[in-house]
């Protein structure tokens, strides 16, 4: 009997044993088994290669701690997290596209409009930046009372949770939009940064000839009653890693060019000392249709 015939028989036997009560579980496991068997059929790994792959996955698991999830990092670095984001959050073309959350979100302090979110050593050394925009629906109607949760790295590419020199809650803020849907805050220009490379995923990136860098960005999660929430990033234009983001999270509509401002009248308007970068970013949320029976 040919190997292909034997592989068909084997796959059939494995699938015949899937008898889960939960139909979705059966579907997911069946899909995974079919694709993994197809992988073996196509790649014909040696036993040594197979054990090397298993050893890699074991080490990925062993690297996980309550603070670090190497398995999610592996998913990020293979574009799988972005693929799952896409199948779950694809929206109309006029909505702000979603993008992966990443591992650095944590609860942000509520801050008033215009607050500085940079309260650490970066404030004195980095380029000042004013981020502002409006939250509207996809027709452009302003949404008052939306929450805009932001988090970003500093000019060294470090989050507060990675850097003892930054106070907790630094470069994070929870803002609420005003009557015109507007939000704004003062911060510093973030830098591009590497994902953690001291574990097996780092080894994989090196072996694949890949760099670990993420282009400079600010994360946002925007929520408003009656609208689909969006978790996304806004990226800094001209960053050298925009075309090769290690996490594959860049979308054209999320890239913003910071505008250098040197006019003292502009600095006074935005309440900053001296030159700054203006960083405009509007967010468009998709209204959620409430079923008529629930709407009364
Ligand atoms: C981040 O942007 O914070 C991130 C996303 C995916 C992997 C690593 C970091
Ligand atoms: Fe990030």
From TrEMBL:
Organism of provenance: Pseudonocardia halophobica
UniProt record similarity statement: Belongs to the intradiol ring-cleavage dioxygenase family.
Protein name: 6-chlorohydroxyquinol-1,2-dioxygenase
Molecular function terms, GO-annotated: catechol 1,2-dioxygenase activity; ferric iron binding
Annotated stretches, region: Disordered: 89-114
PANTHER family reported for this sequence: DIOXYGENASE, PUTATIVE (AFU_ORTHOLOGUE AFUA_2G02910)-RELATED, INTRADIOL RING-CLEAVAGE DIOXYGENASES DOMAIN-CONTAINING PROTEIN-RELATED
Pfam families in the cross-refs: Dioxygenase_C, Dioxygenase_N
Keywords assigned: Dioxygenase, Iron, Metal-binding, Oxidoreductase
Necessary cofactors: Fe(3+)
GO biological processes: catechol-containing compound metabolic process
Residues passing through the membrane, by range: none
Superkingdom per UniProt: Bacteria
Annotated Intradiol ring-cleavage dioxygenases domain residues: 131-159
């Amino acid at each position: 009997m040919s190997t292909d015939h034997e592989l068909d028989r084997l796959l059939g036997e494995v699938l015949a044993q899937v008898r889960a009560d939960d139909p979705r579980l059966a579907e997911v496991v069946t899909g995974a088994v079919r694709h993994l068997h197809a992988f073996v059929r196509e790649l014909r790994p040696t036993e040594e290669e197979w054990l090397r792959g298993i050893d890699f996955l074991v080490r990925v698991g062993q690297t996980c701690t309550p603070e670090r999830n190497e398995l999610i990092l592996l998913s990020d670095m293979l574009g799988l997290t972005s693929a799952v984001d896409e199948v779950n959050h694809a929206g109309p073309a006029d909505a702000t596209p979603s993008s992966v959350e990443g591992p650095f979100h944590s609860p942000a302090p509520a801050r008033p409009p215009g607050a500085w979110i940079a309260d650490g050593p970066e404030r004195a050394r980095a380029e000042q930046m004013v981020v502002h925009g409006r939250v509207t629906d996809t027709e452009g109607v302003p949404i008052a009372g939306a929450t805009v949760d932001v988090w970003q790295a500093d000019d060294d590419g470090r989050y507060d949770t990675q850097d003892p020199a930054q106070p907790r809650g630094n470069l994070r803020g929870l803002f609420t939009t005003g009557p015109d849907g507007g939000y704004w805050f003062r911060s510093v220009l973030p830098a591009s940064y590497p994902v953690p490379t001291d574990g097996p995923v780092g080894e994989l990136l090196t072996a694949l000839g890949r760099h670990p860098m993420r282009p400079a960005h600010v994360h946002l999660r925007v929520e408003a009653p009656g609208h689909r929430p969006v978790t996304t990033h806004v990226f800094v234009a001209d960053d050298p890693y925009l075309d090769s983001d290690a996490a594959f999270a860049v979308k054209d509509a999320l890239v913003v060019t910071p505008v250098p401002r040197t006019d003292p009248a502009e600095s006074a308007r935005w309440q900053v000392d001296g030159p700054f970068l203006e960083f405009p970013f509007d967010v468009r949320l998709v209204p959620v249709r409430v079923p008529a029976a629930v709407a009364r």
